[in-house]
Amino acid sequence: MACPTLRYGQVVKERDENRRVIAVFKQPVFGDVPLYKIQTVYIERHNLNLRHENRRLTRKTVAFSKKTEWLAMQRHLYQACYNLARSHRGPRQRIEAAGNVRWHRRTPAVAAGLTDHAWTLRELMSYKTFVNY
Description:
Elements: E1 8-15, E2 21-30, H1 41-53, H2 68-85, E3 88-97, E4 100-106, H3 108-111, H4 121-126
């Protein structure tokens, strides 16, 4: 059973025989979603970052993964670096001092309150965790 506050919309692109986009339709899939709020810009940006920073997801490269286990391990490492070690403009914090406005860049984990600082790569790679298989 899905959460009653869940809202999910879909953008459908209609293409001609030359694969060119000729029409774009927005439709609600689950919940009451206003059509003007359905957009794909955030997920497409995330997918682009994922492909650029992880060559295993790019076609025809030397770093192609032959086994899915290695691809899964690489994705977990990327996700940890993305959330714990890399600062982003999105979760930045506004700082006003002496009439000047400055911005403090933060990682998503700092913005969510999961940690109090941006991790270094050494700290991330030496962190001991329990994995239960």
